[in-house]
Amino acid sequence: MVGFDLDMTLIDTVPGFAATLEVLGSELGVDLPVAELTGNLGPPLDLLLGPHLPADEVPAAIARFREIYPGTAVVPTPATAGAAEALAAVRRHGGRTLLVTGKFTPNARLHVEHLGLDVDVVEGEVWGGAKGEVLRRHGAHLYVGDHVHDVEGAQAAGVPSVSVLTGGCTAEQLRSAGTDVVLDDLSGFPAWLDDFVLQARLERLAASLRAHERVLVAFSGGADSAFLLAAAVRALGPDRVGAATAYSSSLPLSERDPARTFAESLGVRVLTPQTHEMDREGYRANAGDRCAFCKSELLEVLGPLAAAEGYAVVATGTNADDARAGFRPGIAAAADRGAVTPLLDAGITKEQVRSASRAWGLPTWDKPAAACLSSRVAYGIEITPSRLARVERAEADLRASLETAGHAVRDVRVRDLGETARVEVDRDLVDEAAHHLDVVRAAGFDAVEVDPLGFRSGSMNALLPDPERWR
């Protein structure tokens, strides 16, 4: 939950506020200093109007101001630069938005509705430190405003204060008041929030890893498990972390040496047990629950190994996006066998894995997705070692052929549809791939076709009837 102030934070209130003051002053026969009053927007109306009217006339003036306001202030008031993007950034992280403002609540809602601001809750007529109680009640994690009194509200709630310079306060005033961050305007907020959320999740990840004391990481060599392994080393030290890379027909041979080299560069012990998922009838049958049999085999091998070697848990590289992907039958199977998912538990997404990996200097930060070889075989076609070897050979030869022709290649998949191969490559190489299909045929396929949509992770799931059955 992220709290935002309204006036001069999400909206530029000056034009509409000034127009309303002009009408009010004319009705009251008072020459209100409009420029002065609009230069300090944020405080409640009684504080703004009090110095310019007899005390007994202020309540009526406030009531009249609020009556005039909808017709004079709502339409001419624009959103500030970056306001929509700032709210969208909160939503992108799965968050909610709370508007806490000194403005009369009905008028605040009019601005939200007129501008289409993506706000979940509106709380008006709250000022200064009193905003802290509202922020606490709604569980806000930070508060964004433009005034020193917004800083006061964040401090009262015990949450970080983010200040923008779109109001009347200077950076020096805001910093003196104790704000944590100063931005020119809300345009800089999405990038700041990305880093703020990532750092919070990394701290949560480190704490969960430290709680386990000794961790064996199920390490495939991919970006997720590589990042988890590095995070575990940072949290626990290399002596209390192990990397277990399961060797079997489903792991491409090309992945083995790079995985070992990476793990050894971190100073951890590397274990390479054999797994025998091919011995499981359900795995070979290759129905929608194939991954459940694979993960069952993996954890039934790694669980006892971890116990024998003194590791408290086996941790997998499942991230937060994996859990939202909708079709991951292996996740439940691993959880049923005691595996922990630190990245998922910390809320870390694939994008955040790559961002943090890059910041840490990990060579895997931009490594393409590398699912197991069995994921290339259409559901219902039996998984065999020779079939997987054919797929691996075809992918390696196609990649080499494209690179020899001078093309930079990121993703290549050869989908085994039986005796036909469907080739998926980077979108910009779809046309070029059609000139390199002989190498795929030479690997053992009778016919080859190129998918015009290019590479898509998990595309084989689209061919599975009734995927809900396998969840």
Automatic annotation (TrEMBL):
SUPFAM superfamilies attached to this UniProt entry: Adenine nucleotide alpha hydrolases-like, HAD-like
Alphabetical list of InterPro entries matching this protein: HAD-like_sf, HAD_2, HAD_sf, LarE, Ni-pincer_cofactor_biosynth, PGP-like_dom2, Rossmann-like_a/b/a_fold
GO MF annotations in UniProt: sulfurtransferase activity
Residues in coiled coil: none
Domain of life: Bacteria
Protein name: NAD/GMP synthase domain-containing protein
UniProt source species: Nocardioides aurantiacus
